[in-house]
Amino acid sequence: AVPARTNFIRQIIAEDLATGRHARIATRFPPEPNGYLHIGHAKSIVLNFGLAEDFPGTCNLRFDDTNPHKENREFVDAIQQDVRWLGYDWGDRLYFASDYFEQLYGFAVELIEKGLAYVCDLTADQIREYRGTLTVPGRDSPSRDRPVAENLDLFRRMRAGEFPDGTRTLRARIDMASPNINLRDPVLYRIRHGVIHHQTGREWCLYPTYDYTHPLSDALEGITHSLCTLEFEDHRPLYDWCVANVSVPSRPRQIEFSRLNLEYTVMSKRRLTLLVDEGHVAGWDDPRLPTIAGLRRRGYTPAAIRTFCERIGVTRADNLVEMAMLESAIREDLDATAPRRMAVLRPVKVVIENYPADGSEMLTAPNHPKEASMGQRTVPFGRELYIDREDFAEDPPKGFKRLVPGGEVRLRQAYVIRCDQVIKDASGQVVELHASYDPATLGANPAGRKVKGVIQWVPAATAVPAEVRLYDRLFRVPEPGSGETDFRDDLNPASLVRVLDALVEPALADAQPGQGFQFEREGYFVVDQDSRAGRLCFNRTVGLRDSWGK
Ligand code: ATP
Ligand code: MG
Ligand code: MG
């Protein structure tokens, strides 16, 4: 069956299956282990694994690990954890391009024997200079017509470690005058001594390039549709050249789609690495980053990320997606699933003077206003409690519906109270409110008068201290670094506000890292891994509505 959510790639695949070109499809997700995955990678993961779920087929997880000096085991592990967390399972289809180094070497020998590759003595700078430009054709390397036997000998000695870094490369022998610069005798192998590859150790000092490795790895794995981002469109002729000219078992097809660009953030691994290494953020899982690990710590769920990826769709048109789209996906998910709790971010004490000094009672409150199946919790009520400083105004602005001197407000899930007295310190700061409650207003409207405002509160005796981390956009501008300045100059200095002395209701005392809640009227929050018993720590995932910039 053709799945409901269609796109141009799904159409190509449906046709390939209908015409019998393929009986099953095979895709792959091919990260380079040189950083953590980000939301852009999620687009590719949802696409590739999603195709294998919806059509008869498979999806491989393949590490594209041909650049050993930037790659490491930590990244390999984190990537696997993140793909799994997103809900995808590659089963036993875990591959490393480095698994193919020996086969790739053999294919290179085959190209040399066919007169399609040669060992070049030019340096990297010279190669660039000889390559020409869009308007100037390239010039042949002096090594281009080297005899096959000499090429074979030199290539073997390159592998044996006889030549220093940068002195020789293996290049494809294609066309130095091609209008496509990628076909002007591209480098297939370079020499790299002294690096320890996370998979192959010190076995190799000769490393294949991405453009050579990728198509051949696809072909070796029997990939039918090799999906990549649009910047590789110009590389497709080289991709096809590689597959056509060596004895690989299959002929994969490369199809390009537009990469995800998201406002107010950066996604290139070079930039993310700088933010982490220079300490602009606390690590790859900083909740302000668009990394999967950061989004997870921020309180995003796999379901919300997948929904977002489905909604943005797959096209060939480059665009910049609004952050609001990502935020509405998580807000919808959490609105339906997050238990409601009360939290007071800026506490000010309220003493209810007509409540018995030694009295207390257990009130019950539903965990979700619409989902009775989510049950309820108890909230102890007593003579002393805390409300948010911002829910009281001595000199209220117009339309203020919360507590004012002499006015009434409903305490959420509890009684209506009236503010009778405002106690201030020497500097004029409000330190305490004295109030009275109306015992007849528990779950009932007060007789003969309307009380419009509802505010949160926590009981003074049993509230749990908490740190609350309020996050804003990491950058101040939609496209960081797009102007004259460095992207780091566009960082938002207020992207994290730490509220150190918040109080939350006692039902949260045992909340565990990763659990998400709605703090009524404040937003959605998740327990951070920095949480400790008696000192909780929450991250704000997203506000209740899209109020940013308003
Ligand atoms: P960078 O250029 O930042 O290093 P990359 O594309 O090289 O990123 P890879 O690890 O090679 O990162 O990417 C693995 C796969 O994810 C590739 O198929 C790539 O096309 C895809 N991908 C990476 N970034 C995005 C993005 N922003 N949108 C969609 N797909 C992406
Ligand atoms: Mg890269
Ligand atoms: Mg890449």
From TrEMBL:
ATP binds at residues 32-34, 38-44, 229, 259-260, 267-269. Keywords: Aminoacyl-tRNA synthetase, ATP-binding, Cytoplasm, Ligase, Nucleotide-binding, Protein biosynthesis. CDD domains: GlnRS_core. A motif ('KMSKS' region) lies at residues 266-270. Residues 338-438 form the Glutamyl/glutaminyl-tRNA synthetase class Ib anti-codon binding domain. It is found in: Cytoplasm. It catalyses: tRNA(Gln) + L-glutamine + ATP = L-glutaminyl-tRNA(Gln) + AMP + diphosphate. Its main location: cytoplasm. L-glutamine binds at D64, Y210. The keyword Aminoacyl-tRNA synthetase applies. It holds the Pfam family tRNA-synt_1c_C. GO terms for molecular function: ligase activity. A motif ('HIGH' region) lies at residues 31-41. Residues 454-528 form the tRNA synthetases class I (E and Q) anti-codon binding domain. Residues 25-335 form the Glutamyl/glutaminyl-tRNA synthetase class Ib catalytic domain. The keyword 4Fe-4S does not apply. It is an enzyme of class 6 (ligase). Its EC number is 6.1.1.18. Monomer. Belongs to the class-I aminoacyl-tRNA synthetase family. NCBIfam families: glnS, PRK14703.1. This is Glutamine--tRNA ligase. It comes from Thioalkalicoccus limnaeus.
